[in-house]
Amino acid sequence: MHFQITSTQNPKIKNLIALEKPRERRKQCLFLIEGKKEIGLALEAGYKIGNLFFCEEIISLEEVKSFAKSDQLLIPVSREVFEKIAVREGTGGLIAVAEQKTHRLDQLKLRSNPLVLVVEAVEKPGNLGALLRTADAAGVDAVIICDPQTDFYNPNVIRSSVGCVFTSQLASATSDETISWLRKNNISIYCTYLQASKPYHLTDFTRPSAIVMGTEATGLSDTWVKHADANIIIPMQGKIDSMNVSTAAAVVIFEAKRQRGFS
Fold first, then answer.
1. CA-to-CA distance for 39 and 164, rounded, in angstroms?
2. Cα(114)–Cα(24) distance, rounded to whole angstroms?
3. How is residue 106 annotated by DSSP?
4. CA proximity to 134, closest of 244, 218, 36, 31
5. What's the Cα-to-Cα distance from 148 to each of 11, 27, 44, 204, 221, rounded to whole Å?
6. Strands (E), the chain
7. Which strands, in side-by-side order, build the sheet including 170-173?
8. What's the pLDDT tens digit per position in 219-256?
9. Which of 59, 75, 139, 169 lies in disulfide reach of 93, CB 3.0 to 4.6 Å?
10. Cβ neighbours of residue 237 closer than 8 Å, sequence gap 6 or more
C-alpha cells in the first residue's frame, strides 16, 4: 500500500498523464485502463496489471484489492488527482497500468470455418472502439486492423469499446501482409465497395470469410479491391451512399452470422 498522492506534480501522476499519448505508450509498452468492468475484462484476457490507482472517496480499499495480486502496488490518490488522471467520467474510482500485448497475424487462432473482420486505415478511436464492440457481440474469430491510424490502447478506444478491446483476438498488419495471410488460410475476401458490387445479403458467408471495411472518407484502397473475391454493397434507400463504418460492419457481420445459424 502506497501513501496517498495529493499532488498532480507527483512523478507517478505525471507518468500516467504521459501515457495518454501514443508515443509514450509505444515507448513504455504500457497503457491505462479506466473502470472496474474494463479492468476485469483485461484480467480475464490475461493482461498483466501493474499499479492500481484509486480514489477512496469513490471506491473502497477492499474492492480495489479484489482486482489486485500480491505484486501490485495499490496507490490511493485524492479526488483532485483522480479527476486529473481520469480521461472520462464513471470510471468507478479505479485506474490500472497494464502491459501491452503484441498483436501479430501469426498469433491468431482460427476455427475451421472462421469469420474475420478486417478494417483498413481506421482513424477515429471511437470508430475502432465501436467496431470492436460489434465484433465481440457477433463473436467473430478475429479483428485485423490494416495500416492503423490509431492504436488499440488509445483511452478512447478502450472507452468506446466498453472493454471489448480485451475480448476479441486482434492483429495489426499492412494490407499486403493481411491479404497474404488470408490467402494462406483459404479465407475468402469480401470487400465493401460502391462499384460493381453484389448486395451483401445475396453473398454466401457460410465459407471461411473476411469482411473488409474501409474508411468513411475514402473507402477501401485499390489493393483490397484488386484482391477481393467479391465486392459487396449495402443497398441504400435514402439520399446518402454510405453509413458509419461501425454501423455498416454490424449490418454485414450479423447477416454472415445469420447465414451461419449464429454459430
1. 11
2. 35
3. G
4. 244
5. 31, 18, 26, 28, 13
6. 30-34, 49-54, 74-76, 94-99, 115-120, 142-146, 170-173, 188-192, 198-199, 209-213, 230-233
7. 170-173, 142-146, 115-120, 209-213, 188-192, 230-233, 198-199
8. 899 999 999 999 999 998 998 877 899 999 999 999 99
9. 59
10. none
Say how many Å lie between the first and final Cα of the chain, rounded: 46
User: 467479391: which residue's cell?
Assistant: 230
Task: Output the nine-digit C-alpha cell for 43.
Answer: 484480467
How many CA atoms lie within 13 Å of 220's alpha carbon, on the beta-carbon side?
Answer: 25
Residue with cell 483532485: 80
Dihedral, 246, 135, 251, 255 alpha carbons, nearest 10: 160
Alpha carbon distance 72, 223 (integer Å): 46
Percentage helix, strand, coil for the chain under 3-state DSSP, each rounded to 5: 35, 20, 45
pLDDT digits (tens, 9 = 90+) for 60-80: 999 999 999 777 899 999 999
Strand, coil or helix: 124: coil
Residue carrying C-alpha cell 488522471: 85
